[in-house]
Amino acid sequence: MENFYVRQMEIHDIFNVVKVEVATYNTPWPQDIFFRELVENTHAHYFVATLDDDVIGYGGMWLVVDDAQITNIAIHPSYRGHKYGEKLFKQMIDYGVHHGMKRLSLEVRESNTVAQSMYEKFGLVRAGIRKNYYTDDGEDAVVMWVSM
Ligand SMILES: CC(C)(COP(=O)(O)OP(=O)(O)OC[C@H]1O[C@@H](n2cnc3c(N)ncnc32)[C@H](O)[C@@H]1OP(=O)(O)O)[C@@H](O)C(=O)NCCC(=O)NCCS
């Protein structure tokens, strides 16, 4: 039986997290960004989604007092469409609420209707557009947020 589990990201996970990044994005975050987030950023909280102990996804947020900002969430393409993203996002929200989060916001590509649809399931709504937000191709970002 499959064994899906979400836990906090540790430094030894970075190698496998970058594999998810590379499989997901044209301009993936390199290892040193994750390293700095884990080691230097006291507001950062990162999680990995594991299946039978293999890292199949990850998510991160910055939590400053009661405001949380999702920095990223991704499931490896081979494992999408099985509710793992939703389970990971729910556990991140539960973690945030447990640590005092009152508002959650994020930016998502205008074209990324899959992620927007998942966020809407958790009550996030569109709050506005940041024009030319993505530096690699100039795509606009949709800002979404929810109040707890
Ligand atoms: C967004 C992402 C994390 C969702 O993870 P996932 O495990 O594939 O999604 P789930 O199976 O948990 O589905 C959750 C919801 O997402 C939406 N969704 C997932 N796949 C979808 C698809 N192919 N088409 C439309 N909506 C979809 C639906 O709302 C779905 O709920 P439903 O099944 O009740 O309709 C994943 O698609 C991903 O890694 N995408 C690339 C990275 C990314 O875009 N991250 C967001 C950056 S802001």
Keywords for this structure?
148 residues; alpha+beta; seven-stranded mixed sheet; globular; binds coenzyme A
Description:
30% of the residues lie in helices and 36% in strands. By secondary structure, the chain is α+β, with helices and mostly antiparallel strands. Strands 1-2-3-4-5-7-6 form a seven-stranded mixed beta sheet, sandwiched between helices. The chain is globular, with a radius of gyration of 15 Å. The mean pLDDT is 97. Bound molecules: coenzyme A. The site of coenzyme A has 19 residues, from strand 4, helix 3 and helix 4.
Question: What's this, in brief?
Answer:
With 148 residues, the chain is of the alpha+beta class. The protein has helices at 14-24, 31-39, 84-98, 113-121; strands at 4-8, 44-51, 54-64, 67-75, 103-109, 125-130, 141-147. The chain binds coenzyme A.
Mean pLDDT: 97
| SSE pattern | EHHEEEHEHEE
Q: Identify the overall geometry.
A: globular
The N- and C-terminal alpha carbons lie at a distance of 34 Å
Which structural class matches the secondary elements? alpha+beta
The helix content, as a percent range, equals 25-40%
Bound molecules: coenzyme A
Task: Output the strand order for the largest sheet.
Answer: 1-2-3-4-5-7-6
Tally of DSSP β-strands: 7
Number of helices: 4
For the biggest sheet, the summary is:
7 strands, mixed
Strand content: 35-45%
Overall radius of gyration = 15 Å
Can you tell me the residue ranges where pLDDT is under 50 for at least 5 consecutive residues?
none
